[in-house]
Amino acid sequence: AASGIGLATAKLFAENGASLFLVDLDQETLVSEVEKLREQFKTGIAFQVVDVTAEKEVKKSFEYLTKIFGGLDILISNAGNAIRGKIGEVDSATLRKSFELNFFAHQTLASQAVQLFQKQKTGGVLMFNASKAAFNPGKDFGPYALPKAGVIALMKQYAVDYGKDGIRSNAVNADRIRTKLFTKEVLAERSTARGLTPDEYFKSNLLETEVFDTDVAKGFFDTALAEKTTGSVIVVDGGNIAASPR
Ligand SMILES: NC(=O)c1ccc[n+]([C@@H]2O[C@H](COP(=O)([O-])OP(=O)(O)OC[C@H]3O[C@@H](n4cnc5c(N)ncnc54)[C@H](O)[C@@H]3O)[C@@H](O)[C@H]2O)c1
């Protein structure tokens, strides 16, 4: 939650009075962003440096958040990274590394969250940050697209297995959001491949308008509050028919 979509989502929830427990791997940025959030909002904000791919760390952080806040209402499973490679040639270590972050970390977080929701007997909300890549994979982006497709299946499985316990599970699919995920190299490669400047690239959708991290945050916020919605993919990408769920 130290940058990009995670941080924008944290801000929107804080603005609306939610208490926040924020985790990220990047200690320096997380600490400085939490300081800014605490100055801006009166709501309770706790944080911890956690590698979401390390199951033991995640378990400990759930114990810590339970001590601080007494429980959990909404999980936003957001961390991810765009790992590239041509699928027939990529080494298995790269592919597995991507699955650890872009799939298994979501499973670890969701599994901890549902166990807590069940202890609380409160129901709860699971939200996953998937990607348009789950439905519309980009060329040489298999290591990212495959686990993201898995995240959509994971989201549905939680909706099926825990709906009766009042636990809702949904995913947000974004595309082309100007965050740190678009390193200079990735941006240059993706935009020039389409013959576009970076600015044109970010606007190349049906609405011909750039989509921001704050727009994606709204997707998370609105869906978290949509009490009768589960098993769904909410798309926040300005419109891309090739990436629409089908
Ligand atoms: N930017 C886009 O266009 C886009 C599109 C679709 C989906 N997404 C998804 O949105 C999510 C957020 O990405 P973003 O675009 O905001 O990028 P970002 O790089 O700004 O944010 C990702 C955050 O995740 C953190 N992180 C990475 N590995 C971690 C780990 N092992 N443990 C804990 N934290 C870790 C990073 O430190 C960073 O703060 C990702 O899951 C990404 O796949 C982004």
Which key terms come to mind for this protein?
single chain; Rossmann fold; 4-stranded parallel beta sheet; two-stranded parallel sheet; binds nicotinamide-adenine-dinucleotide
Task: Give a quick summary of the entry.
This protein is α/β, with parallel strands linked by helices.
How would you describe this structure to a colleague?
This protein is of the alpha/beta class. It folds into 2 domains: 4-175 and 213-235, Rossmann fold, CATH 3.40.50.720; 178-210. Helix content is 49%, strand content 13%. It contains 8 helices and 6 strands; from the N terminus they run H-E-H-E-H-E-H-E-H-E-H-H-H-E. The chain has helices at 4-15, 27-40, 55-69, 92-120, 142-162, 184-193, 198-203, 213-225; strands spanning 20-24, 45-49, 74-77, 124-129, 167-174, 232-236. The strands form 2 sheets. The protein has a 4-stranded parallel β-sheet with strand order 3-4-5-6, with helices on both faces. It has a two-stranded parallel sheet with strand order 1-2. Helix 2 links the parallel strand 1 (20-24) and strand 2. Helix 1 (4-15) packs across helix 8. It is globular. The two termini are 30 Å apart. The mean pLDDT is 97. Bound molecules: nicotinamide-adenine-dinucleotide. Nicotinamide-adenine-dinucleotide (NAD) binds at residues 2-6, 24-26, 50-53, 78-81, 101, 129, 131, 174-177, 179-181.
